[in-house]
Fold each of these.
Amino acid sequence: MTDTPLLSSLHLPEDIPGLSLSLKLALAQELRDTIIRVVTKNGGHLAPSLGVVELTIALLSCFDPARDPIVWDVGHQSYPWKLLTGRAERFDTLRRYGGISGFPNRTESPYDYFGVGHASTSISAALGMATARDLRGGKEHVVAVIGDGALGGGMALEALNQAGGMGKRLIVILNDNKMSISENTGALSRFLSRNLSHSTVMHIKQHVGRVLSRLPKGESIVDIIKKGEVSFKSFFTPGMLFEAFQFNYIGPINGHDILQLERHLQAAKELDMPVLLHIRTRKGKGYSPAEHDPSHFHGISASVPDEISTPPQPSGWKPSGPGFSRAFGDALCALAEDNPQLFAITAAMPDGTGLQDFHERFPDRFVDVGICEEHAVTFAAGLASRGYHPVVAIYSTFMQRAFDQIIHDVCLQNLPVTLCLDRAGLVGEDGPTHHGAFDLSWLRSVPNLSLAAPRDEDALRDALALAVGLPQPAALRYPRGSGRKLDPARYAMADHLPKTGPGYPAPGRGELLLQGNVRVCILAAGQRAVPCVEAALLAAEKTGVLASVFDACWVKPLPEAQILALAEENDAMLLVEENTLLGGFSSAVLELLADHDALGKVKIRRLGLPDRFLPHGPLRRLRADVGLNVPGILSALEELLPATPARPS
C-alpha cells in the first residue's frame, strides 16, 4: 500500500467523517487506483465499483457503519466499501482462493450486514432490519443502496410497496447509471432517465420568461413559476413514481459530488419516513476504458493465475470449442435461420449467455427482460401458448428464482419452452452465490420436463437442436468456459474409445464413451464425462485393466434400460456429477436401482458436490478440493478396481 498513503495511515472507517474535502478527494483517487490495480490482476467487477467511490465516502461520512446497517444490492459495487471498512491490507487477495470475497459476506466483516450475490434484495433486507430496529426501540439508520437495473426486479418493487405502506424510517439510495450488466431495458429505466432539461424545453422556458417579464407584475409571476418548477418537474420525472410508493423523493443529484451527497444524506437522516435519494453516477468513473465500455468492464477475468491454485492437469486435454456460451449462441442463430418460431429471452445478460449476435440478427425475436427471471419464464410460457418456441437463457444460479414459474406456468401446462442454464456447476471466483450447484436436483423433480447435460460444445449444439424440436418443456445445463476433448494419441488403450452416434441421443438414451475389460463402470452426467474417460485410461496404464465410461446425457428421463443393463454387467459403479449429491444425478440412479431391486447387486461410489456452500477460487482448485478433477476421479476409481475381477475375454 505504498502508493496509498491515506489508506495506509487512516484508522478506517472511523477517520473518514473528520477528513477535509481535499483529503476525501485524494482518498477517492487512491480507492480508484487500488481497485483498478487489483481487479485488472485478479479479475472482478471493475466498472460498478468505480462508479460508487464518492457515494461510499459520503455514506461513511454521514453514518456510523458500526451501528447503522448499510445494505448493498448485488455486491458488484462493494469494493470501495471493503477497502474503507478494514480490508485494505487484504484487498490484494480479492477473489483469490482463501482471500476476501468479491461480494458482501457476513462471515468476512461485521460491516457487511447482509450477504448478497443476486440482484433486487437490498430493500427487502433493509426493511426487515428497520422493522427489527423499531420492535426493539432502536435509533439506528438503515440504508439500502440499489442500482437502477436491480430496481426493475419484481422483488425490489414489492419491497418498495411494502416499505411505503409500513411507513418505516428507511433510506433507499437509487444509484442510477443507466446500466446493470448490459444496458438497461424497459419502461422503468426510460422513466428514470427522463428529464426536462433538453434544448426544446429550455428554449420554451426562456421564451415564456421573456414574455411574462414584459407584463405588469410579470417578474413576480416568473418568480412563482421558478419556485414551482421543482414540483412541476417532479410530476413528470421519477419523483412522481416514488411519491406514489409513499417515499419522500430527493433528487436526482450528482453522485460524484461528495459535498452534495453529504448534504442530501444528512437531510434524509432527519426525515421520519421512507426516503428515496436518487443519485446519478457514471459506471467506470475515473478509468477511461471502463467509462467508454462499461458492459465489457462490468466484470473482467484475472490476468494473473492464482498462485494457490493446483498444478496444471495432465497434458491430454485440448479445448473442444469456443466455449459453451458462444457455442449455444451460434447454434441458436443457425437454428433460427430455418425456424421462424424460435424466440430468445434472457434476463439482463445477453453478452454473458452468448445471445448478443442473436439480438443483432433477429431483433424482433429477442427480448432482454432485465433482472426479472420469474417474468422471463412466464413471458416465455405466454409465447409458447401461441405457437412460438421460446429459448430462455439464464445462469443456473439465477434460474433458481423462477422455480415456481417453471413448475406452474411452463411444465404444468406442458408448454414447449427450452430452458438453457449457463454456468451450471462450479463457476470459480464469483463463489457460492454464483455456483450452479443445485439445478439437477430441483429440475429433475418437475413433471413433463426433460433435462439434458451435454458434455461439450458439440453435444450442446446437438442437444439444443433436439430440444427445440420437442413438443414439451426441456432444459439444458452446461458449464462456464470451454469444454475439453481428449487427445487419444496420448493413451495406450485409447483404441477402446467407441465412435458415438451422430446427433444427441433421444431423451432416455445415453452413450457409452469407453468400453472396458473389467467389471467396473463410471457413470457420468455432463461436462465431467470426459475427465472420467481420462481417469479410466490413466488407471488402465497403471493397472492394465480398463473401466467402462457411460455418459448418461439425460438426467431426466434417465437412460433406465442402459443403466439397469450396466448394473447387471458390472460389480461396481462410480457415479460422477458436478451438482450437489443431494437429489441429483447419482440420487436418480440409486432410486432407479432400488426400484428394480438392483441396488444390492452392485457396489456404488459417488462423487459430486458436498452438502455445504463451496468458497470462491479457481475452478481447478475447487474441483480438486471435492475430488471432481482427473486425479480425484482416478483415486475413487482405483478404490474400486483392486477388488474387481477382470471381465472374461
Amino acid sequence: MKSNLILLLSLNIVLNICPPMQGAKILSVFGYPGPSQYFFITPLLKSLAERGHEVVSVSVYPQKEPVKNFRDIAVMTNAHIFDEMMVSFAEGEPKSLKDAFLILARAGQKMVSNVFDNPEVQQMMANEGFDLIIMDILTSEALVGLGEHFHAPMVAVSTFGSAGFMDEMVGNPSPLSYIPHMHLPFGNHMALWKRMINVVMEVVDKISFHWLMLPHQEEVYRKYFPNAKMSLNEARQNVSLVLLNDHFSLRAPRPYVPNMIEVGGMHIKRQADPLPQDLQQILDESPEGVIYFSFGSNVKSEDLDKHVLNAFLEAFRELKFKVLWKFENDELPNKPENVIIRKWFPQPSVLAHPNVKLFISHGGFLSTTETIYHGKPILGIPFFGDQFMNVKNAVKAGYALSFKVADITKDSLKSAIMEIWTNPRYAQTVQQKSKYFRDTPLSPLETAVYWMEYVIRHKGCAHMRNAGQDLNFIQYHNIDVFVILAAAVVLLVTLLVAILRKLKQLVFGNSKRKGNSKHSKKSKLN
C-alpha cells in the first residue's frame, strides 16, 4: 500500500513538472507489414494523440475505429512484401550471406518506394509540415530524408534492441568482446574462439550493410529527395533519438549513449485487457495448468512439416492439461480433445492468467518480453533472425528449454514439457526476472512519451548528440593513433638497436685493435 502511494505521488510530480505540451504535429512511418513492428509503436502513437498531439500514421495497419487526433495513411501496396520475402527464404536456403542480404535489401527498397509513391503520402509531403518524425529504420534508411524535407527532428525505433547499424547512427559503443552479434547464439561471456567468430560476423555484417544494403536505399533516397543537401550517411546521423525495445533485465547490461532510450515492453499494458468470456472460463476452470502455444505472426503452425505436426499432436494427446494453440486453419485433423485451436489469441491477456504455466514460443523478442513480464517459462523453438539469440539467452538465464524444429519428436517434446512443468526452478527464475523488469519509476510507455515531447521541446536535442557521430571508423576506434604509436615504438626500437650495434662496434672494435696492437709489439720483441 505504501509503495503504491509513493508511486502515485511520483507520477503526480512527473505530470506536474512535464504537463501536456501544446499540441505538435507528428508523423509516424512504419511501412513493413510485420505486425510486431507496428503493434509495438501503436500504444505510443495513441498516447501522444491522447495528449493533444496530431498524429499521422503511415502503415499497413489502419485503425479499425476512428481515434481522436489520429489519421491513417494506409500503404496497402506493402501488404504482401513480407510474404514475398518469406517465400524467397522458404524456396531454399540462400546460396550465400550475400543472397540473404540482397533479399532484405530489395524488400526494403520496394517498401520505401511504395511509401513514397503513395498518392496520400505525396500530397502530405507537398502540403504539410511536422514537428517530429518517428520511423522504423530497419532496411528503410531512405526514410531519414524526411527529416531534412520537413525540417523536423527524427526518432528511429528498433523493435529488437540495438544492432550495429543502429549504433552507427548515434555513435554508440558496442564492444565486440562481450556484446554478441544478434544472429549468433552466444552469451555475453565468450571464449576466445567465440569472440573471433563474433568479430568476423560483425565485419561481414558491416561490409554487407554498406555495400549491399545501403546502395539500394541510396538509390531511393536520391530518387525521392533529389535536392537534399545531406548525403544519406549524413542524414542517418541526423537522427535525434533512438527508442529501443530492450531493458537491461531482459538480456544483459550494456552501454548506451544518452540519446538511446530503453523502452522494452512499451506495448505491454500494466493491467491486461479482459479475456473473452469463453476463454476466461476455460482458463479459470483449469487449475491443473494450461500450455499456451504460438509461433507469432510470421511463422504459421499449419506450415510445419507433417512429422513435426504429428509430434506435437501425439505429445499433447498424452498430457493431462489443456493446450491453447494459435493455429491458422479452422481444422486440425487428429486434434486431441485437450487442444483448443484458434486463429488468434489475445496473447498478453492469456499470459497474464495465473493458470497458464508454459509458453511454447518461436522466441520473437516481443513474445519473449511478454513472457518475462508475466513470469512464464518458455519452451523455445526458433526459426530465424534474433529468435535464436533470444531463446539461447532464455535457456542460459534458466527459464527455458529449446529445440531445433527439425529435432522435435513426440518423446523429446513431452519430456521437455514435463521437465519445465514439474521442476519449479524454471518458473521461479522467470518470476524473479519479471520483478527486475517491472521495477521501474515510470512505465516504458510513459518514458517513451516523455522523450518524444522532450525532442519536440528542444528542437531535436542537439545537446544530446555525442562527438562519436562525427568520427569515421578509423578515428572512432583510434586506429590511426595506434598505428602512429606502433610506428613510433618500431622506430624507437630500430634506433636503439642501431645505437647498440654502433656502440658494440666501437667497444669491441677498439678492444680488438688494442689486442692486435699488443700482439704486434710482442711479435717484434720476439
